[in-house]
Amino acid sequence: METHRARQKRLRWRSALAGGGVAVAIGALLAPLVEAPAASAAPRADEVRHPVDHVDPLIGSAGGGNTYPGATLPFGVIAWSPTSTTGDQTNTAAANGYSYDTTRVRGFSLTHVNGAGCHPGAAGDVPIMPFVGEVDSSPTADTKDQKYAATFSHEKERAEPGRYRVGLDSGASADLAVSERAGVADFSFPRDAPARLLFRTSNSLNGSENAHIEIDRERHEVTGWVLTGAFCGRRANGGENNRKTYYRLYFHASFDRAFSTVGTWENDRLAPGATTADGGEGYLTGADRAGRGSGGYVGFDTADDNDVRMRLGISYVSLAGAGANLRAEIAPRASVADVAAAGRAAWDRRLRAIRVSGGAEPRRTAFYTALYHALQQPNLISDTDGRYPGMDGTPHRVQRGQTAQYSNFSGWDQYRAQVQLLALLQPEVAGDFAQSLLNFARRNGGVWDRWVHISGATHVMTGDPSAATLATFYAMGVRNFDAKGAFDSLYRQATVPHPDGLSDKGCPGQCEGQRPGLAQYLESRYAAQDACHCWGGAAETLEDSVADDALARWARLLGRTKEADELAARGGYWRDVFNPRATGAAGYIQARNRDGSWVTPFDPASDRGFAQGSAATYTWMVPQDVQGLAEAMGGRDKAAARLDGFFHEPDGSWSVHGGDPLRYDPTNEPGIHAPWLYNALGQPWKTQETVRQIVTTVYGTGPKGLPGNDDLGTMSAWYVFAALGLYPQAPGRAEALLTGPLFPRAVIAPAGRRHVLTIDAPDASDTRPYVHGVRVNGRPHGTSWLDGSVLRQGGSLSFDLSDRPDTEWATGPGRAAPLRRWGY
Predict the structure, then answer these.
(1) Residue 229 forms part of a structural domain
(2) Is the CB of residue 782 less than 8 Å from the CB of residue 748?
(3) What pLDDT, in 10s, does the model give residues 582-637?
(4) What pTM did the predictor assign?
(5) From its phi and psi, is residue 20 left (phi > 0), alpha (psi between -120 and 50) or beta?
(6) Which domain holds residue 201?
(7) Alpha carbon of 228 to those of 114, 124, 182, 448: distances in Å?
(8) What is the β-pairing status of strands 757-760 and 770-776?
(9) Quick one: which of 756, 745, 746, 747 has its CA closest to 38?
(10) Exposure pattern of 26-43 as b/e (b: 16+ CB <10 Å)?
């Protein structure tokens, strides 16, 4: 319920808006977030007018989706969301700090990463907790979160784009809204009890090396920082190598009223009246970390006024930067409602890059929430003045031509779907992101890390996804980055061995070498399982083959013929780990030793030689040369029959929910492209029915609406493409594979571009997934794929859909998708 004080603030703010004074500040807040809409086709009567109305941030917050429901903006740095607890202050209820099934919180943290898989994941910096009662002991000593935490019910929780609200059972409540680098909060307390606000400065999800807080009673301000990092630092497969610091987050909070009391704590020592404290928690867990750390609290007299407003800015550069970000983005008298309205408008603008028509409300909700999650990253890490932290540990400033510095690159995941969607819908952001990754590499000894968090090289996963990502950006028409400099740097990484490539530090899950064992790889044409310094030799070979093929295509576009020919040949190295006699019945991708022998015993269900997947899954991970893979399997018909067995049980029933290592796993990335492979095998109707089966039974609404970790928007981007009837053909290419759209109409209007792509499927419904015919720009189209110019330049697609498979469309000679390495 809105308090009297809150109503008065809101009315004063509206009065200021009417006078025009603060409206300028809100206009400045919105200016960098919106852009002029692209030209568009005439809207249908049933077109979604405001996509933001169809977003449910709670989708994926249970069942391992690892999304967070808190307040954030597109590509924003601040993500203000609850940190839940199950009774261990050194752990969380889910990888990203929030689980829908756990209704006890110990604070509202300022930063989050969408869908990371490590538990705990990353960030969760500076939880701020409204506490009802006296602070008479150190909150850090409350290791079981029994006292300084609170329960809540979902009936008192509301999450929407840019805003989060919840009422706690203690009687306190939090109402949070954000800009890109700042936020404003209203904390309400009962009138008959002490009101305190705890700043748990050291309590990031993974712990911290150190933290600092200062309380200024005269200015009504709380400032400080946390020195932290350690993404995936608790993993058993190499995480101990990543228990290290690589960024410092600064915060600057100001209040609209005086403090009635203040205090700090360090470990188990409470210091009432103190205004400064220092101390970190370390990067371990349980008893090795419990009871360590520091923070501070401020109190308020609620006898006459039980509503407290806080404005807060953050920065990865400096405390001054945090204050400057706050002043630049949040007007002095801005209310939560005002900032939330600006944020909602910003989200609506971004989401309107795709406008769908028709479809039941659950379908719209699933679609626009997936788009919402896909557009949460990359994340800004530069201040409003353009300064950002480099991988060399010093601040830098974005150069001319670059709008902002971005980070949080889950490369192994994102290069398969999310980066293509980013390039399609937000090409300017994609270009800035590409330049950002190049900037990081230049301050990291020329090394492109595969999983960048803030300004840290975490080395998580395997392969060289930066090569695939930037090649994809370029193929899809992104040009606002130093393409020549980026290609030269990535080509060097792919051809010149680096000392880290012989290191086993962090292996297998976080090997330091970004092209591990490169000299041996180039000599043998595969990564040897017994000498690769990588997660798995077979997986590394497949990943590098994909990356090299993508680089080859990029080189061709740049006119670098020599490099293109060299890299194109390397794109076929996957053949050197395909064993046609892996089992008595079929060939599989299989790891090899340096002497050429196959790693035995072999089991298609085993992950030996692979990374987070089985041989049965990875055997299909040759998106750049599906025709070649089919030939290795004995021909297209045999390959298609094997693919049938990948999606079905022996009795013919579907097997698309995961859990069986011999079959499709929708929860992880190595096989998510597999449903579209039928297009290359001359049986596109099976792509149509398989994709629709996954869309309608694996994805959905509600907290369990995602099949697994969202992995920085990757799983959500998969859904967006599937609903549109398009999917990226292969990394480094702009061509798209076709299937039946989910909505009768979709208009894709890329930000900052004048062209649009319209997709019409008048008969689209849950029961009509099959394609009977397609027209491109009004002309009949007989192939199951699109030329890259359509995604780059726009146009029109018209689908004739049916409730029965059409086994004639796009199946004739030359009609199948040309997924062959040499198909330039």
Answers:
(1) yes
(2) no
(3) 998 999 999 999 999 999 999 999 999 999 999 999 999 999 999 999 999 999 99
(4) 0.94
(5) left
(6) 82-328
(7) 18, 10, 20, 21
(8) unpaired
(9) 756
(10) beebbebbbeeebeeeee
